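Give me C-alpha cells for this 215-residue protein.
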Amino acid sequence: MEKPASKPILIVCGVLVLAVAAFLLFGRDGTPGDTSPEAGFARDMATHHAQAVDMAFIIRDKGPAREVSSLAFDIINTQSNQRGMFLGWLQQWGLTQATDQKPMAWMSGHGHGGTATAADGATPGVMPGMATPQQLTQLKQAQGTQAEVLFLQLMIRHHEGGVQMAEGLLKLSTRPEVVSMAQKIIQGQSGEIKFMTELLKLRGAQPYPSILKPQ
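Here you go.
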C-alpha cells in the first residue's frame, strides 16, 4: 500500500503561502506590495496631508495675520504636491488608493499604529496628530486671534503626527524615493513646528502637549 503524499502537499501549500505573502509585501518586479510599509505610508500620509491642506484653507480664508497667511499658503502648496507624489507612487506600483486595512496597520508591531495608546497622544487605528471633527468645527467657527491660535495648535499637533509617521517609515523601509520623502517631511515639518511655536508665543499661547517622544 502506498503511503499518502501528505508531506509534498504541505510543502506545496507552504510555498504558495510564502509566495502570496511576498507578493503582498513586494508586488511584481520587487515594487512595494499592498501590505508593505511603503504602500501604507503613502496611503495614510496622503490622507494626513489632505486634512492639513483643508485646515490651511480654512484659516487662509479668514484673512489672518500676514505670517499665518504665508504659512497656510506654504502648507497648501507643499503638502498638496507631496500628496500628489504619494498617489502617483501607488499608481506606479499598481496599487489602489483605497484599502481594507486599518490606518497605521503598516506600523503595527513596531511601537506605533495598532500598539499606540492614549498616553502616546494617538488612538489605535487612527493616524497620529489628526484633528477631530469637533476641532475642525471649532476652527471654522473661530475668528481673529482665537482662530489663529487654534489653527497653530492643531497644525503643530498635526505636524508632530506627520513626523512620527515619517520616523516610523524610516525604521521599516530602504526604498530610496520613499525614504527621501520621509526625511524631507521630518526636516520640513520640524522646522515649521518651531516657527508655529514662536507664533503662538507672540499671541500669548502655548502648543498642546507634544506627542513626539524625546530624542
